[in-house]
Amino acid sequence: MVPGMTTEPTGLRARKKQQTRAAISDQATRLFLARGFDQVTIAEIAEAAQVAKMTVTNYFPRKEDLALDTHDQFVLLPATTVRDRQVGESALAALRRGQLAGVAARNPLIGFSGPEFARLVTGSPALVARLREFHEDRETALADTLAAETGAAPDDIAPRVAAAQLTGVLRVLFTETVRRTLDGQDDDRIAAAMTRLTEAAFDALAPSLAEYAIRTG
């Protein structure tokens, strides 16, 4: 056998990496919920997950992402929804539909995280700042997708303006969901309210975006 080579299948290695990453994240979340984000060290997380400290930082270069372990899913959700929209459906209509489906499913990516986790995030300035970056990243991702979907020129500002409006509404709805969670409302009550608010929020954008980025085929 050539030195450095392994017979372990690539799929098995990838699965082991995913398991290790999930185990680290799970242990970190457990510690954060018990003691608070700022009070837990990387060394303590490594010990709890039974891995080396360097392993933790290899998987999670930023401590904040140990608590907010959904960056890619969160950032890409609106862009993916727009890319997958139906023929005859605008970006606005697709995102409205996706948001309402998320409310019905109590999706954590739109704010249904539970009171303990909501308190953890809102109680840490570092996590609040990181979540703000998540929202900014998703605006950029959606703007890029809208530009590609509409064939916009590089200097066309329309996709960026539309993305700012659309993700702005999603951010308002996310924040409202978290606020109601912190107020002690249960998920069913929150979902009923957020269904109404989602319709109202997207209706407000309809005059400017109802005909924008309609899929023609």
Characterization of the model:
This protein is mostly helical. The protein folds into 2 domains: 10-63, Orthogonal Bundle (Arc Repressor Mutant, subunit A); 71-209, Tetracycline Repressor, domain 2. 71% of the residues lie in helices and 0% in strands. It has helices spanning 10-35, 42-49, 53-59, 64-67, 71-83, 91-105, 115-122, 125-150, 158-182, 187-209. Helix 2 packs across helix 3 (53-59), helix 6 packs antiparallel against helix 10 and helix 9 runs antiparallel to helix 10. The protein is globular, with a radius of gyration of 20 Å.
Per-chain topology:
Elements: H1 10-35, H2 42-49, H3 53-59, H4 64-67, H5 71-83, H6 91-105, H7 115-122, H8 125-150, H9 158-182, H10 187-209
Helix pairs in contact: 1-2, 2-3, 5-8, 6-10, 8-9, 9-10
Q: What's the β-strand tally?
A: 0
Q: How many alpha or pi helices?
A: 10
Main β-sheet, in a few words? none
Please trace the helix and strand order, writing H or E for each element.
Answer: HHHHHHHHHH
The CA-CA distance between the termini, in Å, is 53 Å
Strand content: under 5%
Here the CATH topology of the largest domain equals Tetracycline Repressor, domain 2
Q: Tell me what the CATH architecture of the largest domain is.
A: Orthogonal Bundle
The 3D shape can be described as: globular
Q: Mean pLDDT, nearest integer?
A: 94
What would CATH call the homologous superfamily of the largest domain?
A: Tetracycline Repressor, domain 2
Structural class: mainly alpha
Number of domains: 2
Unreliable stretches: 1-6
Proportion in helices: over 70%
Radius of gyration, whole Å = 20 Å
